[in-house]
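Morning F.,

Quick status update on the modeling queue. The single chain you submitted on Monday has been processed. Sequence for confirmation:
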Amino acid sequence: MSEWKARRFWKAAAVEPAEGGFRVTLDGKPVMTPGKHPLILPTRALADAVAAEWDAQSEVIDPLSMPLTRAANSAIEKVSPQFDAVADMLGAYGGTDLLSYRATEPEGLKTRQAEGWDPVLDWARERYDAPLAVTEGLMPVTQDPAALARLRARIATLTPYELTAFHDLVTLPGSLILGLAVLDGRLSADEAHALARIDEEFQAERWGRDEEADAAAEDRLEAMRNAERLLGLLKS
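Structure tokens below.
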């Protein structure tokens, strides 16, 4: 038996003002989240982009081609009800941040890490008064609680939609600092992704590329680009 798939049932998507922002309609009927909550977008730019995702669907609906819609659903149904828990989880990445853990060898990799990561750590220290300690190897390094608290305070200023985007910018590269750098415009999503992959690229150059690993990396990059785009649409 073939798997049932949702099919397009509307002719046109549109955007109209709603209490708290803007909503997308399909032939005049408002779009709801999977949990039957009103899909209210905070900016017209985001609403227009979500409507474009619905208009772009062919006969069979492909949720994977609708990253902004999926992010909006998550912001409403998952992030908003547990904002503090999500913020705490992302803030905890600062305690084990990727940029704090350096290779012990070879020298070429150590140099690349220092050249790529030190400027971003310097930025975080200056921007947030949040210096993070650096160590070599896998032995845990204890970070200054006050520095982590200042980074966590920045996360608290985000809206649920911004926190939804920020989630991918932190968890995919494994670095709170890289996520904050994209959030604040210090880095692009592409730059943050490249910095997170310094180790992997170094090994690929030495031992050859792995198609599955490269495909997984491209998926992460695309997700980070979508998160960066969401942040931009929230500012419009």
